[in-house]
Amino acid sequence: MTDKRAKRIARLIDPLRVDPGAKVDLANDFDPGYRSDFLRKKDGVELLDTGIALLADYQARLAAEGTHGVLMCLQALDAGGKDGTIRHVMSGVNPQGVHVSGFKVPSAEELDHDYLWRYACRLPARGEIGIFNRSHYEEVLVVRVHPENLDRQKLPKASKGKNVWDRRYGEINDWERYLSHNGFKVVKIFLNLSKEEQRTRFLRRIDVPERNWKFSAADVRERRRWGDYQKAFSEMLSATSTKWAPWYVVPADRKWFARICVGAVLAHTLIEIDPRYPTVSDEARHNLGVVKRELEAEAPEGAAPDPYIAGRNGHQRRGSGKKAKKARV
Length: 329
Ligand code: AMP
Ligand code: MG
Fold this sequence. Notes:
- Pfam families: PPK2 (PF03976).
- There is one protein chain.
- The protein is of the alpha/beta class.
- It folds into 2 domains: 3-273, 3-Layer(aba) Sandwich (Rossmann fold), CATH 3.40.50.300; 282-328, no CATH class.
- It has helices spanning 3-13, 26-29, 41-65, 82-89, 108-111, 117-120, 142-145, 148-151, 164-181, 195-207, 217-223, 226-240, 255-273, 282-297, 307-312, 322-328, and strands spanning 69-76, 98-102, 129-133, 184-192, 247-251.
- A 5-stranded parallel sheet has the order 2-3-1-4-5, sandwiched between helices.
- Residues 323-329 have low confidence and may be disordered.
């Protein structure tokens, strides 16, 4: 990774990070239509492609090293672009190393457990990237805006007093610190959509038949609570952006820009972890040499002792020429 590329990524995402301890007022502090002055849409496509290739390389190293895991939490209001962002940003990575988990209204079984249980069940393993499409932050967002959700959580009376939200912020911060101490980096993204852009996207979902399924009447009901959500988001961002698990507020009105930013945040996280392919000990290398000689000695008549090396050196490998073609006829 060139230092220049890493610096460019850092420069792009720096203004989006919520400083730990900062008091956020979403409407005043973050513009959903913002884009960096050094980026235009035409450069954006190219940058996203480069970013995707970079992610694929880092993911392969993360998996090979098997020490760290990454959890990226995506939060947004309806039509904020979570699904499309995941599709684009993760398009180049090996699906084996990525787990996307979506969270909806909790099931009866989930409600029988503590509120973090269902999220803990979906955490990535070492070497994996986990993506939460909605996350444990719903527990201080939709549950706060609609307190009847809290009533359904079967909590003892003493656990649902007035200070319940502050307590949850603290519990979430502690949980994320615990994960980070144990090798799992948590990074959180809020896709910040404007009310007008949400209106446009809702109308598109109504106007285009193939998109009708994406729209539900509940979405407009939630829209009527816009102010309550902005307040809940602002408080959540103020209380839970930490050194070990920072929040990034990504401007979401331009999809192309949001996708680049999300890719950049993930790339930055992986660059900081800097996973390496494991190297083998001298003894293991010696043993590899012994096995190599054994395999070379097995070469049939006329075959190169090591066809891989022979191929790399430009020689034609047996079976790749006429014979292979004939067999297909
Ligand atoms: P969607 O992601 O649009 O399919 O919708 C999922 C719905 O589940 C959203 O309306 C969320 O607000 C809701 N949801 C997610 N987590 C929770 C939760 N912990 N409690 C109540 N509702 C939730
Ligand atoms: Mg929805």
